[in-house]
């Protein structure tokens, strides 16, 4: 039985642990699917500052929040049959200048956004259609632009432009793509963070998938104020153009600096050795080297560190093992809920 489980499960018997997961990218659905299998009550808060791939092209044609991350999260939490999920995920291989490379799900999300008048209502409607177990909330109801200042003082806008510079990033922030209004998260997003037992950041690209959400002013404030345990799932490998040579402590430090204090309560850090002979960096050149733990640096960030074998590299690639990570998240959520009960 996992650490703390025998003591805490009795306290929350009959209540699903509430987990709010904030992020984007390919790693997020892996964790969400595993948490779903563990019967957690999940709220996925998904970044809307992406400007690449099919999402970016649709965003250029139609004034809509980029749908790619939202599409993948919907599939990860959906209870519809696999064949229907495969149709939703299908990408056209047509030579047509518009449809080539687009996923059907992205087009459906864009259509619903037009029908409903905003992305939040569109995602709620689609979640019902896709029989989603949990809640999926865009981090903002408007398309956002990611901005970055580099260590040399230069500034760039747009995820693709930022990462292509291959320069060390000092800080990032987001702006409304269509107006001068300050980006805001809608109330259900804030409520999910405040009511959660655990708020999970990651896994995902530090500067382009995690921090854009936290830079939405009222969303970041909710993370600072929540009584939930704030957990950071540290990336397994460094990422070209974003976190070259970063340790686990560097990742946590950057998040804390952007939040303005030590707000990461627990960091989940992989401790297993990665078999680089099975890894193929020529095919996945955004990954450079395994992230080092740096326990002394992590302690300076005032966060608890949980180190374990959190990876699945059976395919010859390196991914988080969703079940291992989800199990640890639930243990932490159980502890946090019990502690809040005791504190009244």
Automatic annotation (TrEMBL):
It comes from the Bacteria. Its main location: cytoplasm. CDD domains: YvcK_like (cd07187). Pfam families: CofD. It is found in: Cytoplasm. The keyword Cytoplasm applies. Belongs to the gluconeogenesis factor family. NCBIfam families: CofD_related. Required for morphogenesis under gluconeogenic growth conditions. This is Putative gluconeogenesis factor.
